[in-house]
Write a structure and sequence with these properties.
Blueprint: E1 2-4, E2 8-14, E3 17-21, H1 23-30, E4 39-45, H2 50-60, E5 62-68, E6 74-79, E7 85-86, E8 96-109, E9 114-126, E10 141-150, H3 151-158, H4 163-172, E11 179-183, E12 189-192, E13 197-200, E14 202-203, H5 213-227, H6 232-249, H7 256-260, E15 268-269, E16 279-283, H8 289-304, E17 308-310, H9 312-316, H10 325-337, E18 341-345, H11 351-363, E19 367-370, H12 380-384, E20 388-390, H13 393-404
Parallel strand pairs: 1-4, 1-8, 2-6, 4-5, 8-9, 9-10, 10-11, 16-17, 16-18, 18-19, 19-20
Antiparallel strand pairs: 2-3, 6-7, 11-12, 12-13, 14-15
Length: 406
């Protein structure tokens, strides 16, 4: 399979992690065991990183076609559910063109450093961009084209807002795709072909490493559909299972044995676009700039997953805004009673947050907690009362969405 995509340095602050991957390199590594051919990776890196890339190529059995750039791009993530910051100065001005790429089966990712011009029989295109470029705009062609997109990318390429209109336009409009796979994060995926629409579940795992999960999904889908000739639905289902394995274990390559190793107890979930959004109460301290930043960040992420969030600082206010503590406290407790789940920020041992969790558990409301540094010896009541606590934000967010929709 031919893969055109990025090779990047990836740095995560919380939890701390460094990696040398990026979309293209990760795809080449992920699919080694699933295809009979040898992957061909077309990518951009600096001369300083060529030896490292060649080591990966030898380890994961693929060939490299390198377009040199001054400095390899670096992505910095504040946490493992955040959007990255590009820390390489001038990377967006490299404007490299990777051309002459043709073959039977191709996976093309969007490139920060420029663009890849491809021509193939079966091509999968994942733009991976906040401002996606149509597949054929750079001269790329495909006998059969599959688009793998998140909701924002799909809406921008289609120029539509409603789900059905988005899918219809992508299939019949200027993009003229043969397959559209619409990724929906914790809620599963939707796949549209010329003769049907199918729902692809997400497979729940307790631990969810989000960085690179989209790369893996697109890579496994391309390997199965473009290279191995599987149906689009079967390929997407295999990709979903493989992504769950990656999110849980972070191991590459991914083999059929790995995919089949998902426990029988693993829950598969598809949340309908028409489902009523859950109400999530966001409990946590907000008394200094750091605490307020975390509240804002988590609120935005949960709302991005379509949850209705009740945040005391936003929706109820501070105690100083009321005549008595009883007034604000009662509004907080009433909001918990109206909620499907409480998401708790557990760092800093805030007494108000702890009280809210106790009230929620007494009411039978599930609690998902996030703590970067949980002192288990001081959190016996939280851990012992059925609260689920995660040490990374991506795992906490995904599990909160799954539980809230139950």
């Amino acid at each position: 399979m031919i893969i055109a995509g990025g090779t990047y340095h990836e740095v995560c602050q919380f939890p701390p992690d460094t990696a040398f991957f990026g979309s293209g390199l990760r795809a080449a590594a992920a699919t080694e065991s699933l295809i009979s051919s040898r992957n061909q990776l077309h990518t951009c890196i600096s001369s300083a990183d060529k030896e490292t890339l060649e080591t990966f190529a030898a380890t994961f059995n693929f060939d490299t076609h390198i377009t040199e750039i001054p400095v390899t791009v670096s992505f910095d993530y504040l946490h493992n559910h955040s959007n990255p910051v590009i820390s390489t100065s001038g990377a967006t001005n490299y404007n490299r063109k990777l051309s002459g790429i043709s073959g039977d089966a191709i996976l093309r990712f969007g490139l920060l450093e420029g663009t890849a011009i491809v021509s193939g029989e079966r091509v999968v295109y994942d733009p991976q961009s906040a401002n996606p470029v149509p597949f054929g705009e750079n001269g790329s062609t495909a006998d059969e084209l599959a688009l793998v997109l998140n909701r924002n990318e799909a809406a921008q390429l289609a120029g539509e807002d409603r789900l059905e209109s988005i899918l219809t336009e992508l299939m019949a409009g200027t993009t003229d795709a043969d397959v559209v796979v619409l990724k929906r994060g914790a809620k599963g995926a939707i796949i549209r072909t010329s003769n049907m629409t199918s729902r692809i579940p997400v497979f729940q795992t307790e631990s969810v490493w989000g960085i690179g999960s989209g790369d893996v999904f697109s890579a496994i889908f391309a390997a199965e559909w473009a290279e191995n000739g599987e149906t689009a639905v079967d390929a997407a289902l295999t990709a979903s299972k493989a992504t769950a394995y990656y999110c849980r274990h972070r191991r590459l390559p991914i083999s059929r044995e790995h995919i089949q190793s998902l426990p029988n107890s693993t829950s598969s979930t598809f949340i309908s676009p028409d489902a009523t959004p859950p109400t999530i109460y966001l409990a946590g301290p907000f008394f200094d700039i750091g605490e307020r930043f975390v509240v804002e960040e988590v609120k935005n992420i949960l709302e991005g997953e379509s949850a209705d969030v009740i945040s005391p600082i936003h929706d109820i206010g501070r105690a100083a805004d009321y005549d008595s503590p009883e007034e604000v406290a009662q509004q907080d407790l009433d909001a918990i009673e109206q909620s499907d789940l409480v998401f708790a920020l557990l760092d800093h041992l805030d007494s108000g947050t702890h009280f809210e969790l106790g009230y929620a558990r007494k009411e039978g409301t599930p609690v998902i907690g996030y703590a970067d540094n949980l002192e288990t010896s001081r959190e016996t009541m939280i851990l012992g009362s059925g609260c689920e606590v995660y040490g990374d934000l991506s795992s906490a967010i995904f599990n909160a969405i799954w539980r809230a929709y139950d």
